[in-house]
Design a protein that fits this description.
With about 250 residues, the protein is α+β, with helices and mostly antiparallel strands. The chain contains five helices and ten strands. The radius of gyration is 18 Å and the shape is globular.
């Protein structure tokens, strides 16, 4: 089983608004890639101003061929002098630095110029780890000293959530912090989820908590199947201005 073979395309109107899943990029068994829009998600997003991805204007047909190359243009260039800082933050394993699909899923393809995010549907496999942002953080209006880097958090599925049946709430002790954002929350409903752990990776604050990155990983990996490794296929691509994307954190 691979760490993930689907990356969902999310769009939202702006910070503090709901995410809409508008499409999915999927790896096929023969190592090719197909992108399709999600009609229901697109219809909901259109009501808030969504327009299709520029290179994929028609929302009623599947796209293949060079779809990964096109989406891969969102990735950071390897020529950047601070490229290692970017890899270190997102905890990119060395063997995957040339793997465009892996990089897109793990770094979420964030850009400051649009409101798209690429959210991998993770599987619970040996070595699983990824970063995500705490959603609905602004609603909680937490004091800046509520969290510290390295804090261990806990999670609970919110089964009564009418908007998202897969909603997962995050706590520090008994204090509610926010939610695991859409798609990333799905791994917490899969077999073996009791072995997942959450810790605070990075805090962005400016008088208040502006964003919190958390790390999701396994408490113990000995009983899980290994993720299959994929061959390198990455090519250099245009760069977002900041490795940590503080202007795009989830709130």
């Amino acid at each position: 089983m691979k760490e993930f073979d689907k990356i969902f395309l999310s769009w939202r109107k702006g910070q503090g608004t709901r995410r809409h899943i508008v499409g999915v990029l999927e790896e096929t068994p023969d190592n090719k890639y197909v992108f399709c829009y999600d009609k229901k998600g697109v219809d909901r997003a259109i009501k808030e101003g969504f327009t299709s991805y520029t290179e994929f204007p028609k929302t009623d047909i599947p796209y293949n061929g060079n779809v990964l190359d096109i989406f891969g243009q969102r990735l950071i260039k390897q020529e950047r002098p601070d490229i290692q800082k970017f890899y270190d933050f997102w905890e990119i394993e060395p063997q995957f630095k040339d793997d465009k699909f892996y990089l897109l899923g793990h770094t979420q393809g964030l850009l400051p110029t649009d409101n798209f995010e690429f959210l991998a549907d993770y599987n619970i496999v040996e070595g699983l780890h990824f970063l995500t942002e705490v959603a609905s953080l602004s609603i909680q209006n937490l004091p800046v000293d509520r969290l510290s880097e390295g804090d261990i958090l806990r999670f609970e599925a919110e089964k009564e959530n009418d908007y998202d049946k897969d909603a997962v709430k995050i706590y520090k002790g008994d204090s509610e912090i926010g939610y695991v954002k859409r798609v990333h929350c799905q791994v917490f409903h899969k077999p073996g989820a009791e072995k997942l752990k959450l810790s605070v990776k990075e805090i962005i604050k400016n008088g208040y908590l502006n964003g919190v990155f958390i790390k999701v990983s396994l408490k113990s990996s000995s009983s899980f199947p290994s993720a299959l490794k994929k061959p390198p296929c990455w090519e250099p691509a245009p760069l977002p201005p900041s490795p940590l994307f503080p202007s795009r954190v989830s709130r």
